[in-house]
Design a protein that fits this description.
By secondary structure, the protein is an alpha/beta fold. The chain folds into three domains: about 1-40; about 70-280, Rossmann fold (3-Layer(aba) Sandwich), CATH 3.40.50.300; about 285-459, Ribosomal Protein S5, domain 2, CATH 3.30.230.10. Helices cover about 30% and strands about 25% of the residues. It is built from twelve helices and 23 strands. The strands form six sheets. The protein has a nine-stranded mixed β-sheet with strand order 8-7-9-10-6-11-12-13-14, sandwiched between helices. Helix 2 packs across helix 3 (about 130-145) and helix 8 crosses helix 9. The protein starts with 7 loop residues before the first strand and ends with a helix.
């Protein structure tokens, strides 16, 4: 006699399962539980669970016998996408790409699908949202002549999708989007926690067992986070985030997770009528609009993934009209800005209590890390004291609460990139300056120990 399956209540925010309904979840969300009935066990026709291609049976192997050679990859035909992925798409890998509606997700995967179909063979594009006519219009615009091996299927049932994929045997599979798929074994609506989990697991089992790379498109919330549970991020091999301002042509692709490459790697594209065009010299594009000897403007650098990235940072201080002074930051964390302002007032004697402070990273980029601390401080000082820094000076360094400067990673590569782009002076922590060793031709390196010394060097 089979055991009767009982319903469970699943939080739509975090995926937490509970045997009974609760008002508040452990993640803090209220009224987010939805009743879902688990699927009955499948006895016959179960798909292979092994990701190693050895069938239904798994056996332990010696670690020393496991091959550690380079993974076989597919060239997407887009240099910046290959860079973010670590050199191309790994066979059997699952990649999740997210972004706001209309930012260019479907455009970039359509271009990649056409290039792979032209070079390697059959590619299957699964559309759960757009009609076949809509996808054809986009493909004609961005790809021109379409390859014969690019196939399209408008379907949302996961069982039918997998059956079609097994019959076609593509070398690359695209699913747009995961929130529209559903399994007939579940009664819940598409996009629910159970449906997303079951459909994602089914796709991953197919991709791993047949060595087919899969691109999965996911929706995002108004805050820019992945919609629904974050369980998909733990299942896939690579998580990509596509971002950009709609009133600008630049689009930035960032890898938040990558099992086959560098994390936090970024790639840049320019949105044009014919599709997305990779931007190879990203630093030059961020610095091209930098005005000469402007107060409050400074060039700085961060190390993203596997390459240094130079960009322009601007600061503006103005007298506060009434009440508390405003603190506004774009591209810089608000908490980090407040800390830098406190150190500036304490260590340099700069009074900002009655002045509004605005900080902006030009280009809409939101870099991570602390290597821009010194640049933020000097830009604010430059604006407040009307001391221009100049366009041929680059500033990097992390500021501690004591006002001392801490070293930044990969400073040597940043210095070489600055010299290549024509900068004449770099201000950085003294420990980083001592590690550079041989002088860089055409570049004067100024190593400083603290914020006060950096301000003196600036003056």
């Amino acid at each position: 006699m089979s055991k009767k399956l009982s319903s469970v209540f699943v939080c739509q925010s975090c995926g937490f399962e509970s045997p009974k309904w609760a008002g508040q979840c452990v993640c803090g969300a209220w009224n987010s539980f939805v009743e879902e009935k688990p699927a009955p066990p499948v006895e016959n026709g179960a798909r292979r669970l092994a990701a190693t291609g050895i069938g239904d049976r798994s056996e332990p192997v010696r670690l020393g016998e496991v091959r550690s050679d380079a993974y076989e990859r597919l060239d997407t035909g887009l240099s910046e996408l290959n860079r973010v992925l670590g050199g191309g798409i790994v066979l059997g890998s699952a990649t999740l790409i997210s972004g706001e509606p209309g930012i260019g997700k479907s455009t970039i995967i359509t271009e990649a699908a056409a290039n792979i179909a032209d070079r390697y063979g059959k590619v299957l594009y699964i559309s759960g949202e757009e009609s076949e006519e809509q996808i054809k219009l986009r493909a004609d615009r961005v790809c021109g002549k379409l390859p014969k091996e690019l196939y399209l299927l408008s379907e949302t049932n996961i069982e039918r999708i997998l059956d079609a994929a097994e019959k076609l045997a593509p070398v690359f599979l695209i699913v747009d989007s995961i929130q529209t798929l559903y399994s007939s074994a579940l009664e819940s609506a598409p996009g629910s926690v159970s449906q997303v989990r079951v459909c994602a697991n089914a796709l991953l089992r197919y991709g791993k067992s047949d060595a087919v790379p899969i691109f999965i498109v996911a929706h995002v919330t108004k805050a820019g986070d992945l919609a629904g549970p974050r369980i998909i991020e733990h299942l896939v091999d690579c998580v990509l985030q596509f971002a950009g301002e709609r009133d600008q042509d630049m689009r930035v692709l960032r890898s938040n997770k990558n099992r086959f490459g560098a994390t936090n790697e970024i790639g840049a594209f320019e949105m044009a009528e014919s599709g997305l065009i990779p931007i190879d010299n990203l630093s030059q594009s961020f610095l091209e609009g930098m005005a000469g000897a402007a107060e409050g403007a400074v060039a700085t650098a961060v190390y993203e993934g596997s390459r240094p990235l130079l960009l322009e940072l601007q600061a503006l201080t103005a007298p506060a009209n009434a009440g508390f002074a405003r603190r506004s930051a774009l591209g810089v964390e608000a908490a980090r800005l407040n800390m830098i302002l406190a150190v500036l007032e304490r260590r340099s004697g700069l009074s900002l209590i009655d002045r509004d402070v605005y900080v902006n990273v030009v280009g809409g980029l939101k870099p991570e890390g602390t290597s821009m601390d010194l640049a933020v401080a000097l830009a604010i000082y430059s604006s407040c004291r009307s001391v221009p820094i100049g366009t041929k000076t680059i500033v990097i360094g992390e500021i501690s609460l004591t006002g001392d400067l801490r070293t930044v990673r990969h400073a040597e590569r940043i210095v070489r990139e600055a010299a290549r782009l024509g900068f004449e002076r770099v201000i950085l922590p003294k420990k980083n300056a001592d590690r550079i060793g041989e002088p860089v031709p055409g570049l004067r390196v100024s190593g400083v120990n603290d914020l006060s010394a950096a301000i003196t060097t600036l003056q």
